[in-house]
Amino acid sequence: MSEIFLPPSAAGLSNSLRGIGYSLEMAISDIVDNSISAGATMISIETPLYEEGIDYLVISDNGSGMTRSKLIDAMKLGSCSPTKKRNLNDLGRFGMGLKSASFSQCRKLTVASKVNSKINAFSWDIDELEKSNDWRLMEIDPQRESKKLSSLEKVISGTVVVWEKLDRALVASNTTQKEGLEILRGLRKHLSLTFHRFLEDGDFKLILNGIAIKPWDPFFKFHPAKQFDFPEAYWPESSRQPEVKLQAYVLPLPEQSIESNQFFSPDDDLKLQGFFIYRGKRLISYGGWLGLKSLDTAPEYKLVRIRLDFQNANDYEWSLDIRKTIAKPPRKMRAWLTKHAILARNKSKAALINTHNFSQKFVPNSFWRKNYGMAPTLNWSDTFLTLFFQLVVEGRLTSDLLKGYLEIISLSHPTNTKKIIYQIPSQECIATMRFIYQTLSVQLSSEEAQALMKNQIPFSCWKVTLNEIFQELKNVRE
Predict the structure, then answer these.
(1) Where are the alpha helices (H) located in 143-218, listed in sequence order?
(2) Which of 25, 266, 271, 333 is 20 to 30 A from 127, comparing alpha carbons?
(3) CB 39 within 8 A of CB 65
(4) Contact 111, 121 (CB under 8 A)
(5) Is the pLDDT of residue 4 over 80?
């Protein structure tokens, strides 16, 4: 059997790497990850703004640095196997981030590193790769690039990454100074969120054009008007060495907060509700409900943010992508995630029901959504329907509860709302109402649970029955 040595085309592969899909913010975050893994306590991003735009970008750190041989290895594509066991603090994964992130934004990448007073520097230039179509790494004289590498003179060890020939988000010839400032404002916000836990703990300082980046805490952990913090939960629940940690937070109401809950845009209420996934302390993705059944985005859940932590040893199970912006929890965790999400969503809705405008706008007849010009559809994000799904997931749905739920759902249909007042609920329906109130009273206060049911059709049409249930359970507790 014969073998043929078939190395990839340097021109083709280097240009293909440019299309992986990094944004400027993602690309710079990937470089910062390398600095964190190197133990840096100071990470600086510098990009001079001229009237004609941005010419180059430099990311420097005071980390452990690399020897000449290690730097050459780091410049190699696929420098580290994704299956290699890593230190818990290592934020790398595929051995591709430095190159793929850099190529996504520029055509020339130079990396210089200092160890034991010795500086080595190497460069990839896509224009040169296209000419030769061969992987020839260029060694650079650090003295010739002294201006861009000057930070290395001030540290015992460290690394500098230089992007030149910028032609994507930062285009030297087309980006005006005003546009450049706007781009950098967005970058500052992204970094203050992505690395907020490191910055809160004082692990390192992150500087952008001479100004320190302050952390932005999406959970308002120390805000005095915060609604609720759930205790930390672990998965597997019975394990002494859990793989995942979860903590849910219910934010302060906007009118109670001195600091606005808004960070990126007015759509934050919808876009940022849901799960924030962290690998170590580094934020991977934020906002949304991970496609969990019966959990959709809605205004009544705008106060919910759930922190989810996993470690790099579980990268494969979480399907971490090369840009480190997407991670999907294993399917076996979905019921556990759903359970905790429902508890937090109920708290958010109960808190908002007490505000007049919200209760008027969102609560009535929320079993069903009106589709103008089409038949109404079930609102699967409704609190009472999520309880129904919780029963299904946990295998606790009895035939009587199923019959009661189906009766409640059918009677609340928009075409039946005028008939409900004259409808006597069945015993199964009453038993289901009792069960719902008991369950909500565990998750919320009795007052909050009562407020939810009093504002929901069809329960609100059966006030006498509802009050009897409330009083009955009150007597049992006393």
Answers:
(1) 177-194, 196-200
(2) 25
(3) no
(4) yes
(5) yes
